[in-house]
Amino acid sequence: MTWISKSVTGLGLLFLTHACYSAHEHSALHSTSTASLSSMASHTAVASTVASLPIDISIETVVAVFVICLGLVLGTPELRPIQWRVWAGKIEREGEKGFTNSDGNVDKDYVGNPFRMLESRPGFIDIRKQRKEFAEWVREGGGTAGASKS
């Protein structure tokens, strides 16, 4: 996570902590005032008072949750391709540079070329290399020199 996403998440957690503290204080003050009112009132005329949270505490809680979600989304790494061939192509094109995180370190799940075992097995024929060698041989006149000697 970058410092921006960490700070946004931290700010959201601070807002959420404040909202929880405010809700606790509100409920504690409300229960204290209700208890004192019920002791003063006659037992026959006890009114049931249900208090909901003030709207500012509710809004602060919702805003805090959204800020926390925003901070977490900002800190997520780039999504990887779902198809294996697309991911393998990205590895071949970009190498380790394509899999560095925001700190500049290579991701822990980077395994390199997934087709490495196929390319390094004995007896593997590199068609591109052979095509290049053949093109150089033709450019040098390899086909005409061999025909004139026979």
Give a verbal description of the structure.
This protein has 150 residues and is mainly alpha-helical. Helices cover 63% and strands 0% of the residues. The protein is built from six helices and no strands. The chain has helices at 3-40, 55-74, 84-94, 116-119, 127-139, 142-149. Helix 1 runs antiparallel to helix 2. It is rod-shaped and about 115 Å long. The mean pLDDT is 78.
Radius of gyration: 35 Å
What is the count of DSSP helices, taking H or I runs of 4+ residues?
6
Order of helices and strands: HHHHHH
- Which structural class is indicated by helix and strand composition? mainly alpha
Provide the β-strand percentage band. under 5%
Summary tags:
63% helix, 150 residues, single chain, mainly alpha
Short description:
By secondary structure, the protein is an all-alpha fold. The protein is 63% helix and 0% strand.
Topology:
Elements: H1 3-40, H2 55-74, H3 84-94, H4 116-119, H5 127-139, H6 142-149
Helix pairs in contact: 1-2
